[in-house]
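Need Glycine/serine hydroxymethyltransferase's 3D structure for a figure. Predict it.
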Amino acid sequence: MSREAALGKKIDSAVFPGIQGGPLPDVIAAKAICFGEALKPEFTEYARRVLSCARTLASGLTGRGFKIVTGGTDTPFTMVDLRTRGLKGDVAQKALETHGVTTNRNLVPQDREPPNVTSGLRMGTSAIAARGMADPEASELAEIIADVLDRLAANPGQGLEIDINIAERVSMLAERFPLYPAQLI
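Structure prediction for Glycine/serine hydroxymethyltransferase:
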């Protein structure tokens, strides 16, 4: 960065130990495993499926009238702006969790809600792709999410109560794609 020894010393002391930790063997090993996994053709297919699922999820929610913050996605995440439905992120997150769907409340552009409330939801697709799900399942999840959120918007007081039919749809989907395939158990 510089040929000046004094400046180099300042940069080094700013980086280590403050930002960068020591060369811990377990961290080096974990990074080696990750890099090795990323070199495999299966990882490329997984990464493609993650992105495709995110786009399918965003498209499905858009089709149900939800506003996606960026109009779509080029990342593994879909961010929904709930303000057009009069919903808050914390309540929407809780309603989805009640039905077995994990999301994160998230601030959206020009959000006036505090960070612990928010006006948005963020949904990632890495976990569903890791379970083997693909576009049909992402589309099904978009429908499930929209059903829960529509129910919540229509009945703010009752929307947090579990709808057995929706929870069963989530459960059946999860059973079709178990966290740990039978051959590993």
